[in-house]
TrEMBL record, chain A:
PANTHER family assigned to the protein according to its UniProt record, in alphabetical order: BLL1145 PROTEIN, CLEAVAGE AND POLYADENYLATION SPECIFICITY FACTOR FAMILY MEMBER
SUPFAM superfamilies linked: Metallo-hydrolase/oxidoreductase
Name of the protein in question: mRNA 3-end processing factor
GO MF entries: RNA endonuclease activity
InterPro entries (UniProt xref): MBL (IPR050698), RibonucZ/Hydroxyglut_hydro (IPR036866), Xnuc_lig_assoc (IPR026360)
Annotated source species: Salipiger bermudensis (strain DSM 26914 / JCM 13377 / KCTC 12554 / HTCC2601)
The organism's place on the tree of life at top rank: Bacteria
From TrEMBL, chain B:
Domain of life of the source: Bacteria
SUPFAM superfamilies documented for this protein: ATP-dependent DNA ligase DNA-binding domain, DNA ligase/mRNA capping enzyme, catalytic domain, Nucleic acid-binding proteins
PROSITE patterns: DNA_LIGASE_A1 (PS00697), DNA_LIGASE_A3 (PS50160)
Protein name: DNA ligase (ATP)
Residue span(s) of domain ATP-dependent DNA ligase family profile: 303-434
CDD domains xref list: Adenylation_DNA_ligase_Bac1 (cd07897), OBF_DNA_ligase_Arch_LigB (cd07972)
Cross-referenced InterPro entries: ATP-dep_DNA_ligase, ATP_dep_DNA_lig_pp_1105_fam, DNA_ligase_ATP-dep_C, DNA_ligase_ATP-dep_cent, DNA_ligase_ATP-dep_CS, DNA_ligase_ATP-dep_N, DNA_ligase_N_sf, NA-bd_OB-fold
Pfam family, one: DNA_ligase_A_N
UniProt record, GO biological process: cell division; DNA recombination; DNA repair; DNA replication
Catalytic activity annotation: ATP + (deoxyribonucleotide)n-3'-hydroxyl + 5'-phospho-(deoxyribonucleotide)m = (deoxyribonucleotide)n+m + AMP + diphosphate
Length: 339, 530
């Protein structure tokens, strides 16, 4: 019995042959990072490796770190392991990480979605023997409608609200979801304002060449009245805060996969919930797994126990990856990634 | 159904009452008569009887979705609503049709007459032609209380806006035991002189809780004080030759409390009383658990009539000699009530709830402190100059309850909530020490903030010892102060007792788990107050 390509430790996913971790949650010597969200790219590691496209945001968020970069699809030898990064379609620069040791191939999905969103590099299936998949939305109640339909809903909401002379306040995570929304908005309707957390990320991504429409940063001296009918993009935590008061009787919206559930939508207290996620829905999870050709599946980040149990009835050899988060539906209240 | 679904969406997308009311009023202006009549019925709790079990619905939905039942069962507690879970799981509709709300509801009302195969075929067929919102509403109509953020009060207000009628008059007209099959939109809402209905109750006036002391209420001479009884609020109607008893939830309870029929022996027709139905030992109320044996029984065995006889402790007179008194001040209503009831023989099933004399708020506070001995929950304070209003209105009626009893208990099981609390652990079982064992004695669901529930939810996920379906056994580490209104013996429970209205008063971060209360502490409370 040879050693597995990857093992699951209390620091996270570890490759013994290459002596590195993938998205570890405790400090390690060498970390391969799928993308810049805070539950994947944590501070304190000795050395980081990420895609070129993900690196600027990771640097922006983690500051002074030792970060090497790699191009998508480029192969690199680390110890006895060969690694390469492949587009995951989650946010700009996000990757799945392929690890090959002695002809055995394992892939860590990171977070991913299959449908093209027009902004980030589209998911690319990677054949493998074992697939470690996220399952944030690994329940059959989670199915997404096409992005264009949701974009039409949002633009329609914006146009109607602007016509009433009110602002729209749209809650979205500052890295990824916010920029995806920017690319979907119809700038003909009105001006787009952004919260500082969103605008900082915009600046990083614009410098990389991602095309985003014009936005106005909401600074303390910004005259809100000078931007009638504006749509404001802010992190969910800013909705209902004192920061949001300057927009008066704004109509509030949230864009997230969790908006599929009425209970969550109501608890958030937003007027409108738009079901728009950067994670795979139930059919996409199945499609992604099928495309890998893998027989062994490890479920992580999400409804792991239910999803693994289901996969076992579908002819896969599926297991649950224990994580620091208790491994299950803990994203309901929305960590940064949980969209 | 599409128009009704659009109404639901408009209501569901707003948290503002004015927006909801306007959307509903617009619906009342434009919908066909049958649909608006059914809409009134739905929002006043007149749903057709459930014709299929939720188990059948689950099985059929899983079958239609091509999923194993267990996967639906696992999804349900996460979504937190069965109707919604099923709507989300089903494959897209294969065709489009738009039957009216009334036609769906009439078909549902007709279901009990059909055999099981026909019911299943009907439901599968409905799912196959409704969109997601339509399915959700359809499932809601079948499964349970149709609560979608529209209260009866909001509905009545919208109806008043739509028809230009007085809200209070409408509220009165919507009371009673009508169904959409027994009346029409015209007869119920538009008919300028609705036929006199002898059994029709008045809308109850509901009090607010007095959170601070009564000093803010002004001079004591403006106020009437009486015991706040721990019974069932009821309205006794004596009109024509008959009597009717209504609960606050607008349920006809006449047959459950046959003793009250004898009230007609002492009081002339044309009188309506508001009061509290209590089990009575001849001089004072019996504990609530004695009355509890009568609740839910449609017919009462003789033995129970003898062990738990009820009377009405009347505290208001809404109608006298056929005349509506609600606009006259309480002082006058109360004087007439006392005059009417003061000389009745002791075996009459109706008595005036005594007025409590007091000169100062401090003096009244002393009286209040003795409430538990009088089998009361505290005091009611009512403004003597006030009319009898409809619904919950602030200002004239206050309940000044005793401070609740409380114990510190250890959380041992947790379960996820429903609806708005889906995906959050909000339903907990609490235990008290018995030697080195923790004995469960109550559940509680309320009293904490959303932020606290979020924290507890994260904690539960990391500290689960064992799962029993949706229930998690957790490490016995968290201590909560449990407040409750009463305590009574209960042989059905392992602890031998049961609490009334338990809730979490606070999370005792400061309290080590070893210092939580014991079963002996609870038994001492039972001996003192049970």
């Amino acid at each position: 019995m040879t050693e597995p390509v990857l093992i699951f430790t209390e620091r996270g996913i570890y490759c013994p042959a290459g002596d590195f971790h993938i998205d570890p949650w405790r400090p390690v010597a060498r970390a391969l990072i799928t993308h810049g969200h805070s539950d994947h790219a944590r501070p304190g590691h000795g050395a980081y490796l990420s895609t070129e496209a993900a690196a600027p945001v990771i640097r922006h968020r983690l500051g002074e770190i030792t970060l090497e970069t790699i191009r998508f699809d480029e192969r690199r030898q680390i110890g006895r392991a060969t690694v390469s990064f492949h587009p995951a379609g989650h946010i700009p620069g996000s990757a799945q990480i392929r690890v090959e040791v002695g002809g055995e191939v394992w892939v860590v999905s990171g977070d991913y979605k299959l449908a093209a969103d027009g902004l980030c590099e589209t998911f690319e299936p990677v054949r493998c023997h074992a697939f470690i998949t996220e399952c944030t939305f690994g329940l059959p109640v989670f199915t997404w409608r096409p992005q264009q339909e949701i974009a039409a809903e949002i633009n329609d909401w914006w146009a109607r609200t602007a016509a009433e002379g009110r602002h729209c306040l749209l809650g979205a995570y500052s890295l990824g979801k916010a920029q995806r929304l920017l690319a979907l908005l119809d700038p003909e309707i009105g001006p787009i304002l952004t919260h500082g957390a969103v605008e900082n990320t915009n600046a990083v991504l614009r410098a990389q060449g991602y095309a985003l429409p014009d936005t106005h940063h909401v600074t303390p001296d910004l005259d809100v009245k000078a931007h009638p009918g504006a749509l404001v993009i802010a992190p969910p935590s800013a909705l209902g805060s004192t920061w949001a008061r300057r927009f008066g009787r704004a109509s509030t919206g949230m864009a997230s996969g969790w908006m599929r559930m009425r209970g969550v939508r109501r608890r958030r207290g937003a007027d409108r919930g738009f079901v728009l996620s950067d994670h795979a829905d139930w059919p996409e999870l199945h499609e992604a797994i099928r495309q890998t050709g893998a027989e062994r599946i490890f479920a992580t980040h999400g409804y792991t126990e239910i999803f693994a149990r289901w996969l076992n009835t579908q002819g896969y050899q599926a297991e649950v990856v224990p994580t620091e988060f208790g491994g299950e539906d803990d994203a309901a209240e929305g960590t940064e990634d949980a969209a | 159904m599409k128009a009704f679904a659009a109404l639901f969406t408009a209501v569901d997308q707003s948290t503002k009452t004015t927006v909801k009311t306007a959307a509903l009023a617009e619906y009342f202006r434009t919908a066909p008569d049958e649909d608006r009549l059914w809409t009134i019925a739905l929002f006043s709790g007149r749903r057709p009887k459930r014709a299929v079990t939720t188990t059948q619905l689950r099985e059929w939905a899983a079958e239609r979705a091509g999923l194993p039942l267990w996967l639906l069962e696992e999804s349900y507690p996460i979504v937190g609503d069965l109707a919604e879970t099923i709507a989300l799981l089903l494959p897209p509709a294969t065709r489009e049709a738009d039957h009216s709300l009334a036609s769906w509801l009439e078909a549902l009302a007709d279901m009990p007459k059909r055999d099981l195969e026909a019911r299943k075929a009907f439901i599968l067929d409905a799912w196959d032609q409704l969109d997601e919102t339509g399915r959700f509403l359809f499932n809601k109509l079948i499964t349970g209380g149709f609560r979608i953020g529209v209260s009866r009060k909001l509905m009545t207000r919208a109806l008043a806006q739509a028809t230009g009628q007085d809200e209070a008059a409408l509220a009165l007209r919507l009371m009673g035991d009508w169904t959409p099959q027994s009346t029409s939109w015209h007869a119920l809402v538009e008919s300028p002189d609705p036929e006199e209905n002898e059994s029709r109750p008045y809308p109850f006036y509901l009090a607010y809780q007095l959170d601070d002391g009564p000093e803010s209420l002004g001079p004591t001479e403006d106020w009437l004080a009486e015991w706040k009884w721990d019974g069932i609020r009821g309205q006794l109607i004596l009109r024509g030759g008959s009597h009717h008893v209504w609960s606050r939830g607008e349920e006809l309870m006449t047959d459950r409390f046959p003793e009250l029929a004898r009230a007609a022996d002492f009081i002339a027709p044309g009188h309506v009383f508001d009061g509290e139905i209590v089990a009575w030992d001849g001089t004072q109320p019996l504990p609530f658990n004695t009355l509890q044996q009568r609740i839910g029984r449609k017919t009462v065995p003789k033995k129970l009539l003898k062990e738990a006889p009820v009377i009405l402790l009347a505290y208001d007179l809404l109608e006298a000699d056929g005349q509506d008194l609600r606009d006259t001040p309480l002082a006058q209503r109360r004087a007439r009530l006392d005059a009417l009831l003061s000389d009745l023989p002791p075996d009459a099933p109706i008595r005036p709830s005594p007025r409590l004399g007091f000169d100062t708020w401090e003096g009244l506070a002393e009286t209040r402190a003795t409430a538990r001995e009088r089998r009361a929950e505290g005091l009611m304070l009512k403004r003597l100059g006030a009319p009898y209003l409809a619904g919950r209105k602030k200002g004239d009626w206050w309940k000044w309850k005793l401070d609740p009893l409380s114990v510190d208990a250890v959380m041992i099981y947790a379960q996820q909530g429903h609806g708005r609390r889906a995906n959050l652990f909000t339903d907990f079982t609490f235990a008290a020490w018995n030697g080195n064992d923790l004995v469960p004695f109550t559940k509680a669901y309320s009293g904490l903030t959303d932020a606290e529930f979020n924290k507890i939810t994260a904690w539960v996920r990391r500290n689960t010892l064992q799962r029993f379906g949706p229930v998690r056994q957790v490490k016995p580490e968290l201590v909560f102060e449990i407040a409750f209104e009463g305590i009574q013996p209960s042989p059905r429970h392992k602890s031998g007792l049961a609490l009334r209205f338990p809730r979490m008063a606070r999370w005792r971060h400061d309290k080590p788990v070893q210092e939580a209360n014991t079963l002996a502490d609870l038994q001492a409370l039972l001996a003192a107050y049970g």
